[in-house]
Design goal:
Elements (H helix, E strand, L loop, with lengths): L2 H32 L4 H20 L6 H26 L6 H7 L6 H20 L1 H6 L8 H29 L19 H17 L3 H7 L1 H12 L3 H8 L5 H7 L18
Length: 273
């Protein structure tokens, strides 16, 4: 990139931060009014989509047109599908136990604690994780083999996540499954097909954004942070803590991979992954 492109990228990064913050602050206002901070989960995908669209519009005249369109479209498709699914899944339900447990730790005003630890933190994470999307929009290099590989990984991730979500939704719709643990389909191979799919999505977008070793190293923070969030942060760890006491879950966890899709184990004496 030349000097003009670097200046434009800087302005675009600032705009992306503003959009992510605006989306999460709007979610904060709605969540506070409804007393349901689970709306932050719905805003997560919307914020990524907003950053992607803003970056695409502001990067006009910079970067490779095909790469700009691909990274924006891929991010929006993933983000809107995720937000729509979470909105549909949460209808008629109360607060997410994860947020209840988090806010129970608040010292002082719970509302301002939620603003800091849920909404503003998520806005910062959206901006950080979306760095490949923003940087790729200003890269002059055309999409090559690595970019095509990235699109394939992204598509696999979106498909894996969507299929897992659909299977779980169908399972929950059957009254006969009330109180049971979903252990069929993709859920027989991994306890978290949705999180694994998310992980693939961002590794794919990272590959699509890489144009050189110079760009690859700093942008690596995006998929690494997302993977850490899903496996050790607010994703897998907190969900399994919530699910751990449910009847049958210990047996399910003993035979099913914790993250990477692997054939189910039939020897329950094996150590849990």
């Amino acid at each position: 990139m030349n000097g003009t492109a670097w200046h434009a990228l800087g302005a675009g990064l600032a705009a992306g931060a503003a959009v992510a913050t605006a989306v999460l602050l709007t979610a904060f206002a709605i969540g506070t009014h409804l007393r349901l901070h689970r709306v932050a989960d719905i805003a997560w995908g919307l914020a990524f989509s907003g950053v992607a669209v803003t970056t695409y519009l502001l990067s006009a005249g910079h970067g490779d047109p095909e790469r700009r369109l691909l990274v924006a479209a891929a991010t929006v498709v993933w983000g809107l599908r995720l937000s729509a699914h979470l909105a549909w899944r949460s209808r008629g339900h109360g607060e997410d136990p994860r947020y209840t447990a988090l806010l129970d730790q608040a010292r002082g005003n719970r509302t301002w604690y939620a603003l800091r630890t849920v909404y503003l933190l998520q806005a910062a994470l959206v901006w950080l994780v979306s760095l490949p999307v923003q940087a790729a929009s200003y890269a002059d290099a055309p999409v090559g083999v690595l970019g095509v590989l990235g699109l394939a990984v992204w598509a696999a991730g979106v498909g894996f996540e969507a299929v897992g979500d659909h299977q779980l939704a169908r399972f929950r719709e059957d009254p006969a499954n009330r109180g049971r643990i979903m252990d069929g389909g993709l859920w027989a191979w991994t306890r978290h097909p949705n999180y694994f799919g998310d992980c693939l999505v961002w590794w794919g977008l990272y590959l699509l954004a890489c144009t050189s070793l110079t760009s690859a190293l700093p942008l690596l923070v995006s998929p690494v942070v997302m993977t850490a969030l899903l496996t050790a942060g607010s994703g897998k760890r907190l969900l399994e803590k919530h699910m751990g006491d449910r009847p049958g879950y210990a047996e399910y966890a003993a035979r099913t991979s914790g993250f990477l899709p692997l054939p189910p184990r039939h020897d329950l004496s094996e150590l849990r992954r």
